[in-house]
Amino acid sequence: MTKRILLILGHPDPDTKRYGHVLANAYMSGAEEGGHEIRHIEVAKLDFPLLRTKEDFESGALLQAIQDSQSAIAWAEHLVVLYPLWLGTMPALLKAFFEQIFRPGFAFGETQANKMPEKLLTGKSARIVITMGMPAFIYRWYFGAHSLKSLERNILAFAGIKPVKQTLIGTVEADDDTERKKWLQKLHDLGLQGC
Fold first, then answer.
1. Is residue 116 very low, low, confident or very high in pLDDT (cuts 50, 70, 90)?
2. 183, pLDDT greater than 90
3. Which domain range does residue 92 map to?
């Protein structure tokens, strides 16, 4: 079964030689080969301000880049979010992107006393792909994978996106070409399967 897939590349460096860009291209290539419709957003290429007040978050103006990104998310059946682990979490630019995108009225409904808001992005699934310098098992078991859990539970699931699958790629700076090629093949295969 083919899917409409949106890949969100959260690396703040637009340099296409970065491993995250290469992994994203491998996934997109696999998705195209699998017959899926694939679009992508490179957060590093977007220009948007930080949200600084509750009022901005709830009712501030949406720039065209943010509106276009929301439209792409609304179009997609499956999201892939790929980013490097920086200081134990997602890069600040990606967090700022999610703050702009996942606003009331798009990601969730009006907040009412003693009630959880309506989840407006139900029916979508996601995969989070995180690259990191440390071994992935240390991030998951010693550090508790808090960045992953925050994105999965506090952002995606809060808006109704589930299931959310995970791919953690550790020791990226120490890996040799053979190991990197294995991960590129793995991302290509995930794209092929649309998962």
1. confident
2. yes
3. 4-193
Q: Of 62, 79, 70, which is closest to residue 27 (Cα–Cα)?
A: 79
Residue 84, both tokens: 């490097």
For the domain that residue 151 is a member of, what is the CATH number? 3.40.50.360
Give the residue among 48, 45, 51 at the shortest CA–CA distance from 67.
Answer: 48
pLDDT at residue 176 in the model:
81
Question: What is the tally of structural domains in the chain?
Answer: 1
Work out whether the CA dihedral 75, 127, 89, 177 comes out positive or negative.
negative
Cα(35)–Cα(92) distance, integer angstroms: 34
Contact 139, 85 (CB under 8 A): yes
Residue whose structure tokens are 């996601």: 126
> CB under 8 Å to 160, separation ≥6 — which residues?
108, 119, 120, 121, 122, 123, 124
Cα–Cα distance, 184 to 174 (Å, whole number):
16
CB contact burial 120-131 (16+ within 10 A = b; e otherwise): ebeebbbbbbbb
Q: Give tens-digit pLDDT for 139-176.
A: 999 999 999 999 999 999 999 999 999 999 999 988 78
